[in-house]
Fold each of these.
Amino acid sequence: MFNYYSGAEDVALIEYARLTGRPFRVFSLDTGRLNPETYKFFDEVEKHYGIRIEYMFPDAVEVQALVRSKGLFSFYEDGHQECCRVRKVRPLRRALKGLRAWITGQRKDQSPGTRLEVPVVQVDPVFEGMDGGVGSLVKFNPVANVKGDDVWKFLRTMNVPVNSLHAKGYISIGCEPCTRPVLPGQHEREGRWWWEDSKAKECGLHKGNIKEEILNGNGNGAANANGNATNTDLLVNENVMNLSRPGIENLLKLENRREPWVVVLYAPWCQFCQAMEGSYIELAEKLAGSGIKVGKFRADGEEKAFAQQELQLGSFPTILFFPKHSARPIKYPSEKRDVDSLLAFVSALR
């Protein structure tokens, strides 16, 4: 299954797939903030190839909450990651959970800061596939070693549709507020999130590419002087209770709890925490009204030593079940973090 956005590499992959004569599926992320030219281009591609692109949309409630609380253009002030997580990463995660493999148009020369080591074939380091757990999704990057000029030579030879924004100076194309044309001599990635650090221009779809953000040997993330990750938070949902240090300590002390609890020990920068975010939120929604509370405790930085000593933290994420009539929590033993596996764990202990 191809992830199709709007760039030259994407339509080149569709053309390659057509030439094989084998069946293929194409999906794209419609963030609701794309250029009019991009939507028109989608229609041209569908008609040219006789296909229907499978569009993935962000959750309307999440978009509404983000816009109401922070406005339409908060990313100019606090970075693009939060908006991209809502509009792109979470919809992509939903799409990939039904697959065993996906194909992208990443090239090594697209982004020297993050894509120089992109392999042609890899186990996806961030997302989970159909079977759930680490290693359940294969990621193909067939044009990883192809130069941008060669992609364009192929497109001109095959006479296929291209996004009209390319002729206006747009090389790397994303959402309208976050993309602008580049000047002659500028790298193509300079047109994306131009107000941010040019070394880490990834929206989250290929988060595993960012190598320099490894923190404490546990995953990806930028750190401040106190060792706390500066990324926006994860697992933000009305059904997931955010536990403070006193809150988790009180939960540990209770031998006769009124309700059982599921709590995840997480760090926002951890790629495995990011990968399970959708499953955990879905778990919380399924358990809403069941008498089982669902919570989260951020256990990196200053809280890490406490979590290791008192909460069985070995690596992120660590999921704990606090039974109704037991003093000590039970640690989830599996790396399969899809919602069905998590539900089976909770159901067996409730």
Note: Confidence is low (pLDDT under 50) at residues 212-230.
Amino acid sequence: MKKMKITLLLLLSCWYGMGQGSTDYGPGMKFNLNEDGSKYMRILAWNQIWMRSTQLNPGTMVGDESASTTTDIGNRRLRMLTYFQLSKRFMIVTHFGINNQVFDTGGASGSANTGGYGVGKKPGLFFHDAWNEYAVILPTEKQKFSLSLGGGLHYYMGLSRETMASTLNFLTIDAPIFNWPLIDNSDQFGRQMGIFAKGKYGKFEYRLSFNKPFATNLTPTDVTSEDAAVAVDNNGNTKWSKAGYFEYQFLDSESNLLPYKVGTYLGSKKVFNIGAGFYTNADATRSSVNGNVRKHDINLLAADVFADLPVGKKENKMAVTAYSVFYHYDFGPNYLRNIGIMNPGVADASFTGDRALAGAGNTQAAIGTGTIWYTQAGFLLPCKAEKPKVRVQPFGAFTYKNFEALDKASTQYDLGANFLLEGHHAKITAQYSARPVYTAADEIGGMKGDIILQLQIYL
């Protein structure tokens, strides 16, 4: 019986996915502009489609009906990225698409009610990235130091590896969101406009940026006690922000052509890195006490470690992936943001029970002044087949949050598996995520869960 179980496990883990991508993919959609290929254009396109069953926070209404659960299908990401290497020194990057479209939200600005521009319909394309880059110092066999400078709407936002994560090769189904602490407030979907410097010196990699944050103008609630002050995003005539990330790559070196950090290499590289980063922005939030408005700096720090290593016998093609990061966030007193990905619910005015403090739908306390510890790990199951049809990669993640605005710390977890049909180029991911539901600052009323099935294809 034991031997039969082991055989079944090996068969399940062998259906294909050699390396991070597919062996059939090659260089992808790359178009050489000269004979030696030093000038080229590269195009990437990807869709991530989610099907979900969601337990909703108490006090939720979906489509004018009180609801405790809902199911849906949505476009988590529909993207296209192009970059043009005009010479060894010049590069242009553009990245555009849509995010978070479901049956009742995520439509174009102004879409509402019923009809051609009803709720959730016809979302507008927008640029995620658009920058120009110049390689000042190119690396050579003798010259280990490299330096590139660039400017525009960019993703070199420092802080942590996960803050600059690629969305193509996550280990879990998605990022935890708090890795993008400014998301769609003073940034544009994780990006700001500014200038950046990047490069390497041997195994050491650095990224620095100087940016003009997008304007925010939330009005702080006036309170009578200093302890009750709550900072909100209001940066007036915005001060320039500064960000950086520094990393030492002990084993294989990772590419820094683009800013997007790989989530899992599926054992195709031997990677062990430690890193640390920061983000700071003066006078970025405000609070009000007895009519006295005060400005606060945003100061964010992070330290992380990442490993992706083949393990066991080479013929078994097994690999382990692990990532852990600690964030220390200071946005000002009692700052707290509640976020729900593709939130399908709104507040139910007729509800009489204990409402969720975070709000309706699938919202939760995501970002705030305080500390967050996040860890994820996955294991690529063994497979001896020469050309298996699928590889299976179970994973899990754990999050600990301790926010100043909440009197009680929380924990939550994610469990799932990647079914890699063609590496990350074609994969199905199944995940269960549990989130705490605060009914008061010092009271967690239980956990709610989401079951998500994702189909991802990228070319």
Note: The longest strand covers residues 292-311.
Amino acid sequence: MPELPEMETYKTLLGSLIGGQKISDVEIGREKSINVPVDGFTMQVSNQAIKTISRRAKYLIFELQDGKCLLLHLMLGGWMFFGKEEDRPNRTIQVKLSFGEQHLFFIGLRLGYLHLLSPEEVEEEFKKLGPEVLDPDFTLDAFHQIMDKRRGTIKTTLINQEVLAGIGNGYSDEILWHAEIRPDKKINELDDQQLSRLYHSIQFILNRGIQQGGYMENPLYKGDGKTGSYQFYVYDREGKECSRCNASIVKSEISSRKTYFCPNCQQ
């Protein structure tokens, strides 16, 4: 599932590709991917310019010129491709937004969606989300205060969107490896030094993910050299050597989530 760095990469690249551009046509291949009837969606979105593209947690918000918003959540398996019709991937397209001869294809939206909402409805969707972990206001002190109130395992807490927004299964393992903390540790077992290390690892790993274009397998457009360059330290590397201590990375399950870590240098 795309996480904060993937959605931030999409936001930046799409801002330069379609920012300010007018949506010339709309095609819906799967009605369940949108939240209003097809005719109404098409009528309200067509001929609207994309005013801004922003991100909140794992969501993208396309603000239209009339103030309405398209709220995107890719969920598991969702991705996008931008290009001409002849360059489109050989995959089922759930939604297509056209910009003249170029199109933004939404693919793999089995669970994901593109909803047409008012700004107030978008805010309502975000009401339960935790803080943006890369926001300047998300300080070390703020992190300590949040963790002080939590119980349970640290891995489960990191991926809880109501606690911290934007971290998912992949980057939580990366963060905990970088902080040298086992993913099955209880929060109340962590001392202040470990929590401080964890905070700095969140900042480091997510910024590294953004700089390297995240881990999406599919390029956003033909010739895209940015998307998907992130190299994992531990996630999905079972049996491979830990780059820090050379022990073998193991896979376990925490709260039904596949979890990867180094049993030697994560304590």
Note: The chain has a mean pLDDT of 97.
